[in-house]
Amino acid sequence: MGWTSEDTDVVEQALQYSDLTHAVRILRRLWQMDAVPGSAAVRKMPFASTPSAVEALVMLPDPEITGRGQRRVTTADIELLDAHTDLYGRADARHGGGQFRSVFAGFLAAHAVPLLEGGFSTGRGRLLYGSVADAVLALASMAYDDQLPGLAQRYDLQAMRLAQAIGDRGRLARGCIHQARLAAVRGDGREVLTHARSAVVAATGAPALVRAYVAVTEARAWAYNGDGAQCRAAVERARAAFDRAGGGSSPRWLAWLDRPELEGQAAWALAMAGLAEEGGRAWKVAMGLPAERTRDSVELLITGAELARLRGERAEWEELLAKAKRTAQHLKSRRLARRLADAAKGVPLHAF
């Protein structure tokens, strides 16, 4: 396939769920490969069926997570990493996953690798591994948006290994959610539901906002499998958990999950389940989404068009699709481009 032997080894080994040393080595190489814009090795990574993700749910946290390297990891180092993850996350929401992923990967290769190989205490190690996991999951989302499921899968597995090492069940749940959407790329409804339910299990005891996130994902998974009753019940669990989260502490990596985002995901699930009236109510709440989240706005307009199609309102369907195309004009997202093309043909919602 035109790969070097080293690239071939990384592509295969990145599907293994091993120890932290393995995860750090794989991440270094993935970042180096991904930092090259249009890398052929990245584009050709196959999407494979692997049971590795299940291991994260059943393995205990690592008993030893201190770093013994010469370079001392400081709080400022971790803050810089978090700041870049936030920056590229906002850029991704505004411009799409294909724009700046290679730049972010290059930053991580230069900044995060020395930290992971540096010296740090157990407490700082927890912060560091959590921060790197957030960055890797953000890269996985960008790869998914750029229709690179093989790369996204490999990023997700390594992020889940870091989350498992520090016993962070919320971040593990996020990894399971990523696995669910990748399973939908394969079109395997049962696997989608398995990963979504795994996220629910992982989030047991997690903050209420995490439980809201996994519940609305479960609703989407039930809708993907054509079960409207279970979808509706999961949406209600998501809303109840979100309401409980109002006065509590929530993880910084989930700060983007506000009421409009939750209702937007609920509207998608209800539309896919064929529950147009309930989906329409959720969609109206979701339209309060901040304007700078361009990609999410396009997703929401596509959902609105689907709800109009279900109601038989062709004029509204055409109007919303035209608005979605205008809004997406400057986005670089292969996934959304395909969704828009499918919606224009009147194809029912199916992309997870």
- Average pLDDT over all residues: 93
Number of strands: 2
Largest sheet geometry: 2 strands, antiparallel
Low-confidence stretches: none
Shape: globular
| Coarse structural class | mainly alpha
What sequence of helices (H) and strands (E) makes up the elements?
Answer: HHHHEHHEHHHHHHHHHHH
Q: What would you call the quaternary organization?
A: single chain
Q: Tell me the β content.
A: under 5%
Helix content: over 70%
Task: Write the SSE topology.
Layout: H1 5-13, H2 20-34, H3 40-43, H4 52-58, E1 67-68, H5 75-95, H6 101-116, E2 119-120, H7 122-145, H8 149-165, H9 169-186, H10 189-202, H11 208-224, H12 228-245, H13 259-272, H14 276-286, H15 294-311, H16 314-327, H17 334-344
Helix pairs in contact: 2-6, 2-8, 4-8, 5-6, 5-7, 6-7, 7-8, 7-9, 8-9, 9-10, 9-11, 10-11, 11-12, 11-13, 12-13, 13-14, 13-15, 14-15, 15-16, 15-17
What does this structure look like?
With 352 residues, the protein is an all-alpha fold. 70% of the residues lie in helices and 1% in strands. The chain has 17 helices and 2 strands. It has a two-stranded antiparallel sheet. The longest helix has 24 residues. The model has no long low-confidence stretch (mean pLDDT 93).
Summary keywords:
352 residues; mainly alpha; two-stranded antiparallel sheet; 1% strand
Provide a quick synopsis of the model.
With 352 residues, the chain is mainly alpha-helical.
